[in-house]
């Protein structure tokens, strides 16, 4: 913690402007980052995998992958990192900020697009800008994996039906010989319109620093 | 033409009913008077048709003995009147758009009460026993059983604050200020002491679930606001019960000490937690019982109703909160019961609950009207006006003040518009009236009752009627009309896990973390005890279900239900999804029907780490072929399907996939046809979106068993078509179910 103490104030301010968190929240997240990384400057996939609470999560891999995905860094790069620093960690977390009373409609709209894009990136694993049937099937399979009992067939059927729905809502006049190659970002946004992502996809970030000491992670 | 005929028929029927009802009340009394005078000796004589004069009359071919059936007759007549009224309103569309149903019903009650009073008869009053024991439980059970758990638990904190703190504030503010008002010389009510005023305040301060449901149901407001106001109206019962009993006890004693106040607080926890505990116990019992009902499916719904009712009554025995007990019972019981019972029982439960609650609500409002006319009243201008003003004021202040505090803890803050709706939606209703009715008879009581009735009328009429235009004016977010699609469903679940995961990475034990823990606990321990069936068979059942559901959906579409679901059917054209580039196989899949969606959603819900496993119940019911379901028309259907498949497979390019290409036609079944006839009649019905599903490639070996499923599925559409109000399959939706 010693070296990073000097990072306070100025850097936090800069980060706060970029990500929209408050200084307190950044401080708390930094503490957590230190915990996860074992006081190093970067964390790798192994660090995140070793969080015990995540073990039961069916989409653990996708979540961890999302942190290392370059597309979530508000830039235009593709590919993934091997390790990420605190700044990248914070950027990913900033996708989960809730809107406040002062958020305007345009800001809410932008927020929603950002969150939907995050989800899209999680599904589109090969980075080609489309969620294909195979990728979507994988998503559904992973979701159902922890139930243990559902067969491949059911997952496939559900994914097929879901793709059908996307296709039919977005491209209603497809001829019998057209292909539907995959869900683009626009289509994805369209089908998730009803979910109001800006109010649903958020995590509570602590403003006050907690003095919990986590044994291990 | 037909509408007008129906309208006039409706009116005449209603008028007739008025007269009959009034007449019955009159003759009933007249008969009672007549029977009162003769001695008991004459009664058996009358029954045998002889009179006291020893002349032997001829054997009476037709006798009139109304007294024998008087009570059930009148009850039935009242209920019939109530329902005809309800029916009548919907024949007159213009009125029902402006005025909420509850207002119209109260108005009818006023009329009926007026008629009865004009005939100088004693009208049936909204007796507290009748209300609390018979009329209220169905409504609460209906609300509790179909409570949207997700929204409720997410907003639990807010709801509790509004329910407990808000009601306390209302009670003390109104009570205290009324006491101050009573001190005014001009009011001539100086004899009302503080405790009575506080008692009055506690009666009038509670938001009423019946009124809220009745009004909010029609304005289709967004889920958050709905659950806030409705949840508050349910949970404030504990507060009301405690305050009411507290002040009632002490208004006899005269003073309240600190110790008593402390006991009151303790009593609040006992009442609320005790009520919930009672409900949970009965809920678990009900779930456990439903585990063994596989051999007597017909009585399954009864268990649900009886256990819930017993929960309510048991709570009432100990003066615990009956409403909370009922809600807890319904909420706890539901996931396990639904996994165990057959689909038909599930539908029965749903429709019975809706039916009973509808009847109850109608009766409550009509009786409210009748009781108003009946009196006895003690109109005191100052008292009543001040009560009204203070109620409104305290509600607004309470909501605004509490929201200010709550918003500090909420992530999604409540805006000013939300606050307005919450404040404006604080309607008072029949519970307040019945509680007032329970007070010991006195001058004060009549005054209180008058004031209570005035407040109820004001909130129901004025606020009830104006809330709809206000909602439009303020552009408050409405309830989402469309059902959740499969994608939304997938992503709702996905989000749950994502947010739990992110929360875990943050190291913060949030809402999702505990929900996840609860789910896992539920899965590992509780479900073993409360859900019947062998787990080892599950995979088989699931794949089986999938095969079945495709067939059902196809059959459903063929029997014409697809035509009734216009919204999802976008295009009739076939659409393709490329399976894999390497395979280069064009799979011609067609647009799926909404029911198919529902089925798939069911599978999703069942398996995406949720405890509800309706799919099991569905499978088991259809797995054991119910001999009563088989029908000749089933054979007919299979013949038709084979024919269609034959016709269609010639145009398919994919080998093992059954294709069905429907050129804007929906083949329907003429249900009126006699099942014995061999002819298959296809009525091509033009529709915008007609689709058939691709049959499952592994369809052959499962062809025998799902017949009963198909049958029951086919019966579903016709039932649905005659369905008056509730939307089917809404119980699975995350949105609030309408009534």
UniProtKB/TrEMBL annotation, chain B:
Pfam families: Na_H_Exchanger (PF00999), NEXCaM_BD (PF16644). Residues 572-653 form the Sodium/hydrogen exchanger regulatory region domain. It comes from the Eukaryota. The chain crosses the membrane at residues 99-119, 131-147, 159-181, 193-215, 227-247, 262-285, 320-337, 349-369, 381-407, 419-440, 446-471. It is found in: Basolateral cell membrane. One of its GO terms (biological process) is sodium ion import across plasma membrane. Belongs to the monovalent cation:proton antiporter 1 (CPA1) transporter (TC 2.A.36) family. This is Sodium/hydrogen exchanger. The lineage of its organism: Eukaryota, Metazoa, Chordata, Craniata, Vertebrata.
